[in-house]
Amino acid sequence: MLEKFQSYLKERLAITDEQAKEATSCLKSKTFKKGTVLLSPGDLRSDSYFINEGLLRYFSIDEKGKEHIIQFAPENWMVSDRNSSVFNEPSIFFIDAIENTEVLIVPSNFFADIQKLLPHILELNILMLHNSIRFMQKRINMLLSATAEERYLDFIKLYPNLTLRVPQWMIASYLGITPESLSRVRKDLAKKHFK
Amino acid sequence: MPTLKKVAAILNPPAPHMVGDGFRVHNFFPSGYKIKMDPFYLLDYNAKIEFSPTNKLRGVGVHPHRGFETVTIAYHGAVAHHDSAGNSGVIYPGDVQWMTAASGILHKEYHEESYSKKGGPFQMVQLWVNLPARFKMSTPKYQALANENMAKYELPNGDGLVEVITGEYNGTKGSASTFTPIEMYNVRLNAGAKASLASPANYNTALIVIEGAITVNETEQATTNQMVHFAHEGSVIEIEAKENSVVLFLAGEPINEPIAQYGPFLMNKPEELQQAIEDYNTGKFGYLEE
After folding, report:
1. B241-270 in b/e burial notation, b at 16+ Cβ within 10 A?
2. Which residue stretches, if any, does this entry annotate as coiled coil (chain B) (predicted)?
């Protein structure tokens, strides 16, 4: 249950198995059935989720009832609502489980609390934040300037197996294109590559 | 004198799950029971259930396969099929569809429209038949075996009928071509009738009681929806129907190669799975409209 998160830390920090075990010993896991809503607008949630198994989705719903997917979180990803976890303001987003999912609950003070055990953990946390800002910058640029095909090709690099795990309309929602244009992109690729 | 094939276990159907919204299946293997059934990798059994009438299309949307064959055997209800190689058809009770995905195909399977609108009993078996490494990337193909054209062996005294899907039963050869030696029959027995089935001792062998109740090798009892799994000892199976019964018989020579599986792909090595995912994502499996 804690092994994946321990490996995650060990891949990023020069620490021993024992240190990884001790640092994570306070973490609890939780399982959610497919379809469970973990976060809704108005909620205050200080925890982050690290995905052991399964798939979560972070999204909003507009006034017309249309869903906009900000992030998919498959195995080894983390997802949290920064608005409520850091700024203590009610969330405007949803998180739900697309598959039966097991997560580790990572409290907001986790990284500060284990500093004594793992002195470089805060540097890692900062690096992770920069990484996620970089990811968001790229994603904004994609949404503003890239063609549907470029967005799709970028998506399959980032999330290679999600095309087998989520319906087309969700991928289209993530890419900010219509399901019809996603179909067209896939059809065009098949024309180019199918022999 | 051939010896009786030893029964290894009589297996109850594991808890069912839905595949799409059209198939409520009991997965006997690989997840339900850890039994040796190579070259058969997976068996999903939709035990007989009633579907209510609907105008909605129930089933499974477009999805890929690579590295194996899917075999669908219909007992009740009807399934419409379309694939990216341009094949389409409807599988009615008694029919079998043998689809060789091999290097890669996209397909979708839905309850056939007029069956859907009427509703009624639905019962199917879907098997994944593995391919040896050297055939995994061969060209996809499609064999539609309509019941009326299926090779049938009539048992003496009006005892019943053996529909030979593939392999050979008492000189009657099934028309489905396979990549490795496989015996697959639907055995339809009247109450009180007996039949002998055979497969070499090293073949992985099982039968499912689709309907009715049977005695196996004079001592073991199996009833509707149970699977009888055989040990690698002996070659002959004697079955006797306690009531009118339908039995699906499966036997195959094991391929004995490494297996790497992810979702709808069945290969030998993890890197071949990654390749399959990449090929699927970039359109190398072709295209099929939802």
Report:
1. beeebbbbbbbbbbbeeeebbeebbbbbee
2. none
Domain count within chain A: 1
pTM score: 0.92
By Cβ distance, the residue of B61, B280, B286 closest to A163 is B280
Whether chain B has a CB inside 8 Å of the CB on A14: the answer is no
Domain contains A57: yes
A193 Cβ under 8 Å from any chain B Cβ = yes
Domains of chain B (ranges; CATH) run 7-252 (2.60.120.10)
Q: Is residue A141 part of a domain?
A: no
Tell me whether residues B283 and A156 touch, CB distance under 8 A: no
Reported as type and span, the H/E element at residue B91 is strand B88-91
CA-nearest residue of chain B to A153? Answer: B282
Comparing CB atoms, the residue among A163, A168, A188 nearest residue B281 is A163
Which helix (H) or strand (E) segment holds residue A172: the answer is helix A168-175
pLDDT tens-digit series, residues B160-210: 999 999 999 999 999 999 999 999 999 999 999 999 999 999 999 999 999
Q: Are B203 and B252 in contact (CB under 8 A)?
A: yes
Q: Nearest 5°: CA angle at B246, between B241 and B249?
A: 100
- Give me the CATH number covering residue A68: 2.60.120.10
ipTM of the prediction? 0.89
Q: Sort out which chain A residues have CB atoms less than 8 A from B264's CB and list them.
A: 164
In terms of residue numbers, what domain contains A34? 3-119
Peptide bond into B30 cis (omega under 30): yes
CB contact under 8 Å between B263 and A161, yes or no, is: yes
Whether A149 is covered by a domain: the verdict is no
